[in-house]
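Module 6 notes. Inverse folding takes a fixed backbone as the condition and produces residue identities as the prediction. Think of it as a translation problem where the source language is geometry and the target language is the twenty amino acids. Below is one complete input and output pair. Work through it position by position during the lab.
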């Protein structure tokens, strides 16, 4: 299962556009999906945190997956779908349903959130999903959301499972544990950055790509950043990485995806900036700052604002 999946490059975890009265707007989602894939994204992530998956009904989740799958089919691009629950049996049921559709390349699965089952329980959870879910898995390592850290040894154990094809690495730092993983990469196991503000140094250290909410906005720039690092162009990569880190910092100044939606709305790309409770709309000040960064000239040898 492992060897024929190549997850190098940029994956965009799409927002779920809503109307002013908080209904899902599938046409706007289809446009975002097409724009992302036409602007250099390697693939899409449906039902990530950025999609507000936690507050979508089962029917809305199906709509989101259907729309993203159609765009990925049209562009021959891989589709990753988020499956996040602390109920192992329920996760297996969701994975099997997704596997039946035949459109999904892999599932993005966090350590069981909230329960904090410990590392052994977490490994048992992922092993059950790998053995019984019927889909390749990308482990989502995001302890600040799940409450469950994973050591490099645990990630290495998961990397050796044939069904586990990568990790979305969002531990909040690049440290000795990160370098231990990147220094001895496992074949068929992609390291994808998931902390937008530090994606540039993670790529410099050897990451295969990223799943980056910020790329809902400047898709081509994030795709270029990855291409520059993979092509060995350290100087331009460093300069672009610095500009994009400033953008990501302001996009994440308030809970994701409120600021990203406000910027997409201001740029006429979604019908409303609306987010569902418990998320609140972004504050005007942060949105103004984000728009200033998006419009600022990029210092990478050519003039012009981020795209
Ligand atoms: O939805 C995602 O996938 C992402 N979510 C992260 C978060 O909200 O913590 C950020 C990352 O860029 C992608």
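Target side of the pair, the amino acids:
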């Amino acid at each position: 299962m492992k060897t024929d999946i190549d997850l190098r490059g940029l994956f965009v975890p799409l927002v779920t556009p809503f109307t002013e009265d908080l209904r899902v707007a599938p046409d706007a989602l289809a446009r975002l999906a097409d724009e992302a894939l036409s602007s250099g994204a390697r693939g899409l992530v449906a039902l990530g945190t950025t999609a507000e998956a936690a507050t979508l009904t089962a029917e809305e989740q199906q709509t989101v997956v259907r729309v993203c799958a159609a765009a990925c089919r049209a562009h021959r691009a891989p589709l990753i779908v988020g499956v996040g629950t602390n109920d192992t049996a329920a996760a297996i049921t969701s994975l099997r349903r997704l596997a039946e559709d035949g459109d999904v390349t892999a599932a993005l699965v966090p350590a069981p959130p909230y329960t904090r089952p410990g590392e052994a329980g977490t490994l048992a959870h992922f092993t059950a999903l790998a053995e019984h879910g019927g889909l390749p898995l990308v482990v989502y390592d995001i302890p600040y959301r799940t409450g469950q850290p994973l050591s490099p040894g645990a990630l290495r154990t998961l990397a050796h499972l044939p069904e586990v094809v990568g990790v979305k690495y969002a531990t909040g730092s690049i440290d000795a544990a990160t370098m231990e993983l990147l220094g001895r990469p496992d074949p068929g196991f992609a390291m994808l950055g998931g902390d937008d503000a530090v994606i540039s140094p993670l790529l410099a250290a050897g990451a295969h790509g990223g799943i980056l909410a910020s790329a809902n906005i400047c898709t081509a720039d994030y795709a270029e950043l990855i291409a520059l690092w993979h092509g060995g162009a350290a100087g331009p990569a460093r300069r672009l990485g610095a500009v994009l880190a400033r953008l990501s910092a302001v996009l994440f100044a308030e809970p994701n995806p409120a600021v990203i939606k406000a910027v997409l709305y201001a740029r006429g790309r979604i019908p409303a900036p609306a987010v569902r409770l418990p998320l609140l709309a972004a504050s005007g000040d942060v949105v103004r700052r984000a728009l200033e960064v998006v419009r600022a000239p990029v210092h990478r040898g050519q003039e012009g604002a981020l795209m």
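Reference fact for the lab report: The first helix runs from residue 26 to 38.
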